[in-house]
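For the sake of clarity, the format in which proteins appear in this thesis is described at this point. The fold follows as a row of integers, each naming the local backbone shape at the matching residue. One such record is shown here in full, so that the layout can be seen directly:
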Amino acid sequence: MAYTWINVKQPYRIGVKNFTQRFLDNIFVVKAKFRTLSPVAVCSDETDVILKNNKPTVVYKHFTDNNGKPVIPASSVKGFIATYHTIAINDPNRTADLFGTMGLMSRVLFSNLKPTQFNLKIVRIGRQWPPRRRGSGVKVYLASQLLSPTNSQEIYVEAIPENIVLTTLITITNATERDLVELLASMGVHPQGNKPIRLGRAKGLGMGRIKVDELEIYKNLFIRKEQIDSKNYIAKAGEILDNEWSRIKDAFH
């Protein structure tokens, strides 16, 4: 089977009890560098046609920013990190309070995930595997290469190659230290080695494995940003992952 289900209390961010007020106060900024462990793709609705094996083949083009540079859009970054928060923290009220829900804006703000190199490659993927059975949690893909079983299902996409550094800024507003620690855990941050996380496959033309390579944490004091020691926060994020590992390990591989 190409996927499994991670058991969680509730897979959706619906409703919040006693939500945190939305003020621009007590702000943490995380400057993160991820590294691609596989080709990574988030495609737009634009296509191109190339010759593949002497046959015309449709290629789905990668999402780009206003300057035409390939990026993982901020909405996708928020989506997969919020999903990992659902998995790791397993508290739907906490996830909704931090990442927002209907009628309540997110307290976590993301920038686009930008590659440091812009040479794309064309890779073959398969259509999204539909669930063969209904699960009660979050669906996570297991296959390292998500290729379709038959040529009739082949899809080609532009992808950011493996071993490319991606950079992003993540801002948490009206934040507590608990918010910061949970965010780091959702990114797979661990003091003994950061865990791989996956993006995409909830939608048919997104896919890839990435891992946090480096991070810096700042406390925003409005007139300046002050870098803070991240070791304690990273250690606490690791404790969250360790305590839940038997339940969540299939999501971090």
